[in-house]
Each structure stands twice: as C-alpha cells, then as structure tokens.
Amino acid sequence: MPTRKPVRQTPAFTAADPLLASFPPVVARDTRTLILGSLPGVASLAASQYYGHPRNAFWKLVGDSIGVELAGLDYPTRLSRLLEHHIGLWDVIATARRTGSLDSEIREHTQNDLLDLIGSLPELNTIAFNGGAAAKIGLKTLGMRANDHRILLLPSSSPAHASLSYAQKLVTWNQLTESGI
Fold first, then answer.
1. Which one of 53, 58, 91, 141 has the minimum C-beta count within 10 Å?
2. Is 4 part of any domain?
3. Strands (E), 41-168
4. Residue 17 lies in a domain
5. Is residue 40 very low, low, confident or very high in pLDDT (cuts 50, 70, 90)?
6. pLDDT above 70 coverage of the chain, percent
7. 11 assigned to some structural domain
8. Which domain holds residue 144?
9. Which of 102, 116, 99 shows the shortest CA–CA distance to 34?
C-alpha cells in the first residue's frame, strides 16, 4: 500500500499575530545603488539591524564586492561605509505577518513606498534586489519606473539560500561594482 506524504499546511494568521515592520531606509542624497531586501528576519529584527543574522552573508558579499571589510565592523560603521560608497539599503515590504524568517512564510504584507524613495535619489542608477521575493515584489511595485534604472537580481544572501556557494553568489554580487559605485 503506497504511503501518503504529509501535506504542508500554511499556518493560519490571526489579528493576535504580531505585525512585523521593516526598518527605515538607509540612504543619502548621493546614493547611486539601492539594495532592496524583502523583510528583516527574526535575528535582524531582534538586533534592530539590517542583515543581523550572523550566518547571513550580506555584509561579506557587499564588502568583498566593493573591496571593503564590512563584516568585522560595528553596525553604525557598516552603514557609514555603505553610504560612503553610495550604497543604500531598504526593504520592499513595509509590514507583514510571518512565522520564522523565510520569505515563503510572509503573509498579509504591505509595500514600502519605493517610488517615493527613488524619486528622492537624483543620482540613483542601480536597484539591486537581494533575493527572489524582494525582486518579485519590488519590480511589481516599481512597474515601468524600473526601466529608468539598471536592475540587478542578486542571489539571496540568506543562509536559507544554500543552493549556491558563497563563491557562486559573489560572482553575481560583484556586479555591484559595475554600477559605478
């Protein structure tokens, strides 16, 4: 007799479930490259830091791409170094309900006002999406305005995206330096 595979059920969310919120954008008027993630994970929210999970490769990938050691710096200095290199950070999702940190668990999300932000950045030439969920939501939000910028679809820096090695991810992330940073 064949065995049945268990069916994965999506958890039901209720009004009692916490509503998670993204961080404010980290940008300067001279930002040329904007890296957009989806929504901070549990460790990042707990630390109140973009890419705060110790196994997330974001800081190493960006640092190796621009030739600056970022991973060993304290958080405020990391952000300062990004801005010095004309790189900004934000998330495409403003609020959502989610259990855990996986993008696939995001429910009931609202988007950040990407159009308003990019309209305030006169030197912006590149928008880079950190992972598929960020790209899907972000490109839909930007619509035709995406055509005004160089778009980079980067493999997720998350430790959950293990189908590519660090070296394979870095090949794509190195495109950041081709954007005139």
1. 141
2. no
3. 87-91, 93-97, 107-111, 126-130, 150-154
4. no
5. confident
6. 85
7. no
8. 23-179
9. 116
Active site residues: 56
CATH number assigned to the domain comprising residue 114: 3.40.470.10
Is 8 part of any domain? no
> Of how many residues is the chain composed?
181
Sheet holding 150-154, edge to edge: 87-91, 33-37, 126-130, 150-154
Which of helix, strand or coil describes residue 94? Answer: strand
Cβ count near 25 (within 10 Å): 18
Give this prediction's pTM. Answer: 0.86
Judge whether 63 and 57 are in contact, CB under 8 Å: no
Instruction: Enter the tokens of residue 20.
Output: 């998670």
Q: Give residue 107's pLDDT.
A: 76
Determine the 3-state secondary structure of 54 from DSSP.
Answer: coil
